[in-house]
Amino acid sequence: MRFLAESGIRQFLDIGSGLPTQGNVHEIAHQVAPGARVVYVDVEPVVLTHGRALLAGTPEVTVIQGDARRIEEILDDAEVRRLIDFDRPVAVLMLAMLHFIGDGDDPHGIVARVREAMAPGSHLAVSHVTGDFDTDSRVRDAGAVYEKATYQITLRGRSDVARFFDGFELVEPGLTTLSLWRPDSDSGVPANAERQWCYAGVGRKVD
Ligand SMILES: C[S@@+](CC[C@H](N)C(=O)[O-])C[C@H]1O[C@@H](n2cnc3c(N)ncnc32)[C@H](O)[C@@H]1O
Known about the structure:
The chain is an alpha/beta fold. It has eight helices and eight strands.
């Protein structure tokens, strides 16, 4: 978020935003650019309830209920259109969310549709769980916990995660594991960070 805001992005669409915690997207954006516009989107109604309470009195930030599998409805949503001008650069965040979309729902097609809607200079941020380094099956076992949950997890390998950035230019340091993507100087990097359970990357749309 800091990278995106410092790059000059002033509007953010956070799809699969999750429950509000500390250091929310709009809080970080506003540290760099007060007035930056943020739309949070999540399929879960509870996120909407918490989000609305948290955001009362912040007109440039809103939360809507939406399902990434019906991406057209999100892109056309009146609240989204009120705050996001797709003719100007926007950052779309899909963080720890795309692994909840199975191959049958065409997650790459969903991201491609988002890319089509973006103006040049827009950015896409993705993080995604992987089993690439899962030598002791811990990630697979954790994924199995979701088998009976509302959403199942699809672990994807590096090439499938990289394909989300088709049509984007990856910004430095490229597609890395989560902890290696521009770590905060004060947070440190965990041991074996290069073999972590999650990939992360940011792409820039050039034309
Ligand atoms: C692990 S949380 C990630 C939250 C936040 N983006 C983060 O990185 O901390 C995943 C979120 O994606 C949401 N989600 C799952 N499937 C979704 C879908 N099809 N459309 C929108 N949100 C979805 C879940 O409800 C959940 O809040």
